[in-house]
Write a structure and sequence with these properties.
- It is elongated and about 90 Å long.
- The protein contains 25 helices and 13 strands.
- The protein is 53% helix and 10% strand.
- The strands form four sheets. It has a seven-stranded mixed sheet. The chain has a two-stranded parallel sheet with strand order 8-9.
- It is α+β, with helices and mostly antiparallel strands.
- The chain starts with 12 loop residues before the first helix and ends with a helix.
- The structure holds cytidine-5'-triphosphate.
- Cytidine-5'-triphosphate binds next to strand 2 and helix 8.
Length: 479
C-alpha cells in the first residue's frame, strides 16, 4: 500500500509479520504474553515508509527482560544479551537485532547519561521519544492486536514529510541533545522538512551539542554524509548553528569577501555543489565524500588578496592535506588507510586540472599516475565534480580539456604501467652495493632513481637503474 493511502485504523498485523520472518517467530511468543506488548519507533516508521530496516524495537508494559528471555528460548541459535542498568535486553538473529525494553517515563536515549529507569505507561514512553514519526506503536497482543497507537499524529507527519518533536522541543532536546543532529539526519535521509517550532528549538539549543560524546556526533554526521541529500543536511547544520560546534573548519568556508569590487566564491556552497556532483558518479564511498568535504578546507587559512591576481588560495591543497589527520583525530574517525586516502585526494585535487594546459608532459602524467596509484579514478571523479563554474561555456571547455587529460593518462598507463609500480632497485640493494648504512643518503639515491624514471631520463629497467645509481653515488662523492 502506498504511503498516501496508508490507514492507521486498518489492521496491518498480518502484513507486518509476513514482512519479516523473525518478527513472525517473536510474535508467536508475544501472542500469549499476559502484559501488553508493542512494536515501536524506527521499525514502525520504516514499515510504513517501506524502507528496509534491521532493528526491531519492542516495548513491554512490564518486565521487558523476562519477555526477551522467553522469546530467546523459543528461537534457536539466537544470541541474547541483557543490559540491566537500562532495563533492556537484545536478541540477535542473523543480522537482525530485536531490542526489548520496559515502557519508561524518561528519555528513551540508549546512551542516556542517567541509566536509572522507572516504569511508565505506553503514553509516557511515547512522550519521551525524539520525534512524532518515531513515537508510533503497534499493539502486538490482546484485543488490540494490530492496532496503531499514534498519540502525536506521527502518520500524518510521515505523510507530510515533517520532523517534529512530540513535546516542547527544548524538553525533548534536553533529554538528549544528539536528537538535534538526528532531526537533520532524518531530513537528509528522507527528504523531509523540520517543523518551524522544532527548527527554532534546535537553533536555541545548538550549543548543548557540546555535551554529547564525539563518537555519537560523528556517527550521525557520517549518516548525513551518506544520506541521499547530504548537502541539504549541511545547509541545515549551518542554519541551525550546529555546524560551528561540530565542524568549525567547515563553517569557516562560508562567506564571501570583497576587495576593490573583487569577490571570491563562497567555498561552503561550492563544496556542497561538488558533493552533489559526486553523488551522481559514486554512490557508496563514505571516504570519497569526506575527501570532497575536505578538499578546500584550507582555503580560509591560505586566502590572500593580491592587487594583480585578485584572490588566491596558494598551497591550500598541501595545507588541507595536513589538516586531515587533525580533523580525523578530533572527530574520532579512524586514523588508518581511509584517512590516508582522504589525505591523498586532498593533496592531489589540483593536479589533474593543472595538467589541462597545452604542455602536458609524459613526465607529469607519470608522476600523477605514480602518486595517485589505485585511487586515480576516485581522484579524477573528485576533480571532475570540482568544476562548478556557472559559466556554461567555461564549464564545457574545462570538461573537454579534462577528458583529454584522462585519455592521455590512460595511454601513458597502458604503455608504462606506473600505477602500481615500484622502483626496480630496493633500499637494501642500494645499501649493499654502495656499502651504506641506513640513513638519509640511501633515501636520496632511491628518490633520485625514482625521479629519473618518472622524468624519462632513464628507462624503467633494472640495468639502467643500476648504472644510474652508480653515477649518482659518484656525483655525491659516495663512490
Ligand atoms: N530514540 C529517541 N532518542 C534518541 C535515540 C532513539 O527517542 N536519541 C528512540 C526513537 O523512538 C527511535 C528509537 O529510539 O525510533 C530507536 O532508535 P535508533 O535505533 O537509534 O534509531 P531509529 O529511529 O531506529 O533509526 P536508525 O535505525 O535509522 O538509526
Amino acid at each position: 500500500m502506498s504511503l498516501e493511502h496508508f490507514n492507521t485504523s486498518g489492521n496491518h498485523y498480518d502484513e507486518l509479520i509476513e514482512n519479516e520472518p523473525i518478527l513472525k517467530s517473536v510474535c508467536k511468543v508475544i501472542d500469549s504474553w499476559n502484559k501488553p506488548v508493542y512494536l515501536i519507533g524506527g521499525y514502525v516508521r520504516d514499515f510504513i515508509l517501506q524502507r528496509p530496516t534491521k532493528d526491531i524495537d519492542i516495548v513491554v508494559l512490564g518486565d521487558g527482560i523476562k519477555l526477551a528471555k522467553a522469546v530467546s528460548d523459543s528461537l534457536h541459535q539466537s544470541s541474547f544479551s541483557v543490559f540491566k542498568n537500562y532495563g533492556t535486553a537484545m536478541i540477535k538473529l542473523n543480522d537482525i537485532e530485536v531490542q526489548f525494553v520496559g515502557a519508561r517515563k524518561e528519555s528513551y536515549s540508549r546512551n542516556s547519561r542517567n541509566p536509572i529507569v522507572s516504569p511508565g505507561s505506553l503514553k509516557e514512553d511515547q512522550n519521551r521519544r525524539d520525534f512524532t514519526i518515531n513515537a508510533l506503536a503497534i499493539s502486538l497482543n490482546g484485543n488490540s492486536k494490530g492496532s496503531f497507537v499514534d498519540p502525536f499524529n506521527g502518520v500524518k507527519d510521515l505523510k507530510n514529510g515533517i520532523i517534529k518533536t512530540p513535546l516542547n522541543p527544548t524538553e525533548t532536546f534536553s533529554d538528549d541533545p544528539l536528537r538535534m543532529l538526528r532531526a537533520i539526519r532524518f531530513t537528509s535521509q528522507l527528504g523531509f522538512i523540520i517543523s518551524d517550532e522544532t527548527f527554532e528549538g534546535i537553533t536555541k539549543n545548538a550549543e548543548r551539542i557540546n555535551i554529547v560524546a564525539q563518537e555519537r556526533i560523528t556517527d550521525e554526521l557520517n549518516k548525513i554524509i551518506m544520506s541521499d541529500y547530504p548537502s541539504l543536511g549541511f545547509k541545515l547544520l549551518e542554519k541551525t548553528n550546529l555546524l560551528t560546534h561540530i565542524f568549525p573548519e567547515f563553517q569557516a568556508l562560508k562567506g564571501v569577501d570583497t576587495i576593490n569590487g573583487k569577490k571570491h566564491k563562497d567555498n561552503f556552497y561550492h563544496t556542497l555543489e561538488v558533493l552533489e556532483n559526486i553523488l551522481e558518479k559514486s554512490t557508496s564511498n563514505l571516504w570519497l565524500r569526506w575527501a570532497v568535504l575536505l578538499h578546500d578546507i584550507a582555503k580560509p587559512a591560505t586566502k590572500r588578496f593580491d592587487h594583480t591576481q585578485g584572490w588566491t588560495f596558494h598551497g591550500h591543497d598541501d595545507k588541507g592535506a595536513k589538516m586531515v589527520p587533525k580533523i580525523f583525530k578530533r572527530m574520532k574517525l579512524p586514523l588508518d588507510d581511509n584517512m590516508r586516502y582522504v589525505q591523498k585526494l586532498v593533496l592531489l585535487h589540483l593536479r589533474p586540472i593543472s595538467l589541462t594546459n597545452d604542455q602536458i608532459t609524459d613526465s607529469a602524467l607519470r608522476r600523477l599516475l605514480f602518486e595517485a596509484g589505485d585511487d586515480l579514478e576516485d581522484l579524477m571523479c573528485l576533480c571532475q565534480s570540482d568544476i562548478t563554474s556557472k559559466n556554461i561555456e567555461k564549464k564545457q571547455r574545462y570538461l573537454k580539456r579534462f577528458e583529454v587529460v584522462q585519455k592521455k593518462l590512460k595511454e601513458v598507463e597502458e604503455r608504462d604501467k606506473i600505477k602500481n609500480w615500484q622502483p626496480p632497485i630496493s633500499g637494501k640493494e642500494i645499501m649493499d652495493t654502495l656499502n651504506l648504512s641506513p640513513g638519509k643518503e640511501v633515501g636520496q639515491i632511491k628518490e633520485g632513481i625514482k625521479n629519473a624514471i618518472l622524468d624519462g631520463v632513464i628507462k624503467n629497467d633494472t640495468k639502467e637503474a643500476r648504472d644510474f645509481m652508480l653515477k649518482l653515488a659518484k656525483s655525491k662523492g659516495i663512490l
